[in-house]
Every structure is written in structure tokens, then in C-alpha cells.
């Protein structure tokens, strides 16, 4: 009985050790892969397109791409970014880009694809007067004020608001936009200050 227990314990110990080796191996692999990639490229997702199939969208299409520099600090859940903050993150480490800078007013559909290694989203905010993109004040949570938002796409493989778009996935939203200037942002904590904003003019 005692011998059996000992053997069982050593089996468990071996299993745990094996698990640690396996985790270390995976970590080593992903670090190696990250260093060999260009910034903004996804780690294991299709190079283009998305894992979601979006429905036919009404109005004028605006394709928005979300990306970030891949890396163990940003995607590995290493605990180096407590609370999702961006303490040491360089501005420009994340990007939100649109395939059009100007679109006619009326029905506009945003198809938003996350090519990054962490979750992202799109929020559409009006720009007032001479306000310029990238200058919104940040709250303590390192987010910008969303009051006045005219819509968002933040649902993995879905329309409208959700919990964020998973890496490799898309979200979409159809809006009625009045003429004016808008700022397209990702408002996950720290992402705006990391560079996730661009301007869209509605004519
Ligand atoms: Cu983001």
C-alpha cells in the first residue's frame, strides 16, 4: 500500500514535471516565432481575411483593420500588463486603419477585422470643431470618454457591441452617418494611447 502510494506520488511528480517542460517548450516556441515576425502580423491566424463569415452589409463598406505588434508582452498573458494597462507601451505599437478616409453620408457599414494578437474593437466617435484625432483625454482606466459614440463593432463574429473582437475574428456594424468628421478608435484600456485611432470624414 505504502509502495503504491509512493509510486503514485512519483507518477504525479513526473506528470507535473512533464507539464512544466511542455509549457516551457511552447513558450520558447512562441517567443522564437514572435521575434521572426514583422510587426502587426498575426501569429497563427490566416494572413488575410478572418475566421468569421460576415453577412452582406448594407450601404457603403468601410474596411477597418486592427493590429498590434506581436510579442510576449502583449499577447502572452505574462502578467506584465496588469489590468491591461499600457505603462511601457510605445505609442504606435497598435494600429487602427481604414481603407477609406472619406465616405458619403447615409448608410455606412464597417467591417472590422482584428489581425492582432490581442482583442480589439471599433468605436465611432464624432470629432467636434477643430478637435484632432489622438488628442482625447484619458481616464484613469486609460480609456477615452465614449459619450456621444454613434456606434461600435466589438463582437467576435457578430454585429455591434460585445466584449471585444478576438484575434483573427471580425465584427461589423451598419450606421447612418451624418456629414462631419469622425474618429475611429479602439477603446480597450491603453489601446487609444498606443495609437489605435484614425480619422474618417463623412461628406
Ligand atoms: Cu485595441
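Q: What amino acid sequence fits the structure above?
A:
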Amino acid at each position: 500500500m505504502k509502495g503504491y502510494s509512493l509510486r503514485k506520488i512519483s507518477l504525479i511528480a513526473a506528470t507535473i514535471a512533464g507539464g512544466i517542460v511542455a509549457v516551457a517548450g511552447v513558450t520558447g516556441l512562441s517567443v522564437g516565432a514572435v521575434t521572426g515576425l514583422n510587426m502587426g502580423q498575426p501569429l497563427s491566424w490566416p494572413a488575410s481575411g478572418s475566421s468569421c463569415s460576415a453577412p452582406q452589409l448594407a450601404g457603403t463598406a468601410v474596411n477597418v483593420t486592427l493590429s498590434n505588434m506581436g510579442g510576449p508582452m502583449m499577447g502572452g498573458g505574462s502578467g506584465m500588463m496588469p489590468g491591461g494597462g499600457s505603462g511601457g507601451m510605445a505609442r504606435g505599437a497598435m494600429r487602427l486603419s481604414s481603407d477609406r478616409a472619406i465616405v458619403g453620408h447615409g448608410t455606412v457599414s464597417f467591417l472590422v477585422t482584428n489581425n492582432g494578437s490581442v482583442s480589439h474593437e471599433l468605436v465611432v466617435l464624432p470629432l467636434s470643431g477643430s478637435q484632432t484625432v489622438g488628442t482625447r483625454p484619458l481616464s484613469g482606466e486609460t480609456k477615452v470618454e465614449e459619450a456621444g459614440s454613434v456606434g461600435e463593432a466589438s463582437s467576435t463574429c457578430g454585429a455591434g457591441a460585445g466584449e471585444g473582437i478576438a484575434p483573427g475574428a471580425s465584427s461589423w456594424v451598419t450606421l447612418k452617418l451624418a456629414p462631419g468628421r469622425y474618429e475611429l478608435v479602439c477603446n480597450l484600456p491603453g489601446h487609444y494611447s498606443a495609437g489605435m485611432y484614425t480619422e474618417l470624414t463623412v461628406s
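Q: And what stands out in the fold?
A: The chain has two domains: 1-36, 60-202.
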